Amino acid sequence: MSDKLPPTLFQLPFLRCLVMGRASVAIFALVTGYVNSLGPLKKSRLGNADAALSGIAKSAFRRFGRFMIPAMVATTLSWLACQFGAYNVAHVANSAWIRDTSPAASASFAGAFYDLFKNLGTTWIDGMNQYDRIQWTLTYLLKGSMMTYLSLFALIYVKPRWRMAIIAGMFYFKWKSGDSLVGFNVYCGIFLAEASIDADIAAFVAAHPILQSVGSASMIILGLYFCSYPEEHPEWAPWSKSMLHLGHWIFPAGVEFSRYYPGMGADIVATGVMFNATAKKILSHRFLCWMGKLSWPVYLLHAPLIRTVLTWVLFGASVRPQQGKDTNGNQLPPGWLPIANTWVVVFAIPLFYVFLYRVAGLWASYVDPWCTKVTQQFEELVFRDDAKAEKPILLT
Prior knowledge:
single chain, globular, disordered C terminus
């Protein structure tokens, strides 16, 4: 697509949501706030605030193992693939994203291990990981988790109504301060967790069926529309150009609209789903719950598998085209590997998703339990005896 060419199918609003990643990051942040606060908030409303504080402390400690150990395993596997040449096809594929995110093998045996340990550290220091570039988000999501626990720690004894007001204020603060990646999405998740267990809100929604059906459905549609905002060149399409003009009115000055719109859209969709019985029933389907259970391993595995398995299938059977010679008669380097053919794409991409979720299922069955075991063993080592009475449970 350009300012003169029509958009392709997945560049249209709503359909863009299927291939865009920024809304997914916003949803991860929102779910982080919701899931990690729901249990403590329930305990607080039941008058068991001390148990809630104990759970917050333990969950905050375990969160590091929940995030860091699986990410380190994924990085190590990608490092091994790189050193053994699994990214060689990706280096010459006719896809800028695949080429740019596929690292080259290290120059020496010792250098390979140096690069591994360096990237295991920089993932959490500055978000840089040459073996899995998408892990840059993990530092922000971990920050969102700690933001959730700290807020709950400060507000667990506050009355629910005042707590909701303070959380709404924190949402506004994060909105105005430009923290669009995780900040206001995390506080939206905490607010929705509180609202979901509030009897007065439930009674109000039940007493207004039109609001519950038409209003919530409208919020879902509007939220998906906002999530469709393009990362680049919104002025090329009339629908996104109108959103660009709207953004100057509703967003703080100087912020990145392509972060704010997906974040705001994800929050609106989540709010609409929470008050829509049909949407909740659909999303509670066993198949969708199974996909949600595998979202964390899918996130860690999808990029390395795209750069290896999918790239081999799409580009591996092609031949690099010759570019001829330059004006001085020197042979130009061959061009990038083209995709084999359209039929390969039609069959390969759906089969790749089946393969991806199969590998993610194996990860959830073997790698995740091992990571949990390692975290529990470390907890047994460092926790006081009176803190070991409760069986460790990792929040997702």
